[in-house]
Write a structure and sequence with these properties.
This protein folds into 2 domains: 220 residues, Jelly Rolls, CATH 2.60.120; 37 residues, no CATH class. The chain is 25% helix and 16% strand. It contains 8 helices and 9 strands. It has a 6-stranded antiparallel sheet. The chain has a 3-stranded antiparallel sheet with strand order 6-5-8, with no helix packed on it.
Length: 275
């Protein structure tokens, strides 16, 4: 059951003040199991290997563009325990920026501390334009590579220096929990000193006026998008932002490409109606 508007406000306040919040044990057991199973299958089918660079790691398996891989991932972006908080940080016109998995194997070093909106050239601090989440498909502990965060760093006027050490804390949480944060927050994956893999899904969102990290419109076959529920189609970028951005010949991509009437009216026609 989705949490109340009061609880949403509490999480939004935590994100505003410290840059992050945790929704503990909110994911359905069957969903977590299905996601873990799908990721293991995809890893075999795709012969997924570590990125072998300083950012992606030498012992970390990442699988990108998950909405194009298996229908079980369609349940992730629209989850009722997560999306209302994201919409509160950004706005209901937010988009899926990327949906990928991050499986940290034993022996991995800590990822460099970074901010997810580093490439967005805006003076800092600024209003949130990125809101990201990490889904714990296993327990997240300080020993096995739980995400490291620098609380309050989203309010700083500078970005972290890549590769420099910063004091951070582990965002520990049990399996089935979700960590959400302002994209300006300094953070990074932790080192895995345990004997078991740490598995997470990075469900990342951006404001509707920001370019998405993964190109959802070109990366997902239209046949698959047509089967998405309407809200997921919008989140994937087939709607428009504020009745304008993203239109095709004064129609939404949902109307033009997916052949569904979403009631789109351009901002110019809305102005005429008001007048």
């Amino acid at each position: 059951m989705a949490h109340s508007a009061k609880n949403v406000q509490c999480h939004l306040q935590e994100i505003a003040e410290q840059g992050f919040t945790i929704r503990e044990s909110v994911l359905e057991t069957d969903l977590v199991d299905a996601l873990n199973e799908a990721l293991l299958r995809l890893e075999r089918e795709l012969n997924a290997c570590p990125g072998a660079n300083l950012f992606e790691g030498d012992h970390t398996i990442r699988i990108y563009n998950l909405l194009a891989r298996d229908r079980v991932f369609e349940r992730v972006p629209v989850h009722a325990e997560v999306l209302p908080i994201v919409e509160g940080v950004l706005d209901p016109g937010c988009l899926i920026s990327s949906l990928s998995s991050i499986s940290i194997d034993p022996g991995e070093d800590a990822q460099p501390i970074h901010a997810d909106d580093t490439l967005i050239d805006l003076p800092r601090p600024h209003r949130p334009v990125v809101c990201n989440s990490m889904w714990a498909l296993t327990d997240f502990t300080a020993e096995n590579g739980a995400t490291r965060i620098v609380p309050g760093s989203h309010l700083l006027s500078e970005k972290p220096e890549f590769g420099r050490h910063y004091e951070s804390v582990a965002a520990e949480m049990p399996k089935g929990s979700v960590l959400l944060w302002n994209g300006s927050l300094w953070h990074g994956g932790g080192a895995n000193g345990s004997s078991r893999r740490r598995v997470g899904i990075a469900m990342n969102y951006c404001a509707g006026f920001i370019r998405q990290q993964e190109n959802q419109q070109l990366g997902i076959p239209l046949e698959r998008v047509r089967a998405f529920q309407p809200r997921l189609q919008e989140l994937a970028g087939f709607g428009t932002y504020k009745h304008l951005m993203g239109h095709i010949d004064k129609a939404s991509p949902i109307q033009k490409l997916l052949h569904r009437d979403d009631g789109f009216v351009s901002v110019w026609d809305l102005i005429d109606r008001i007048d």
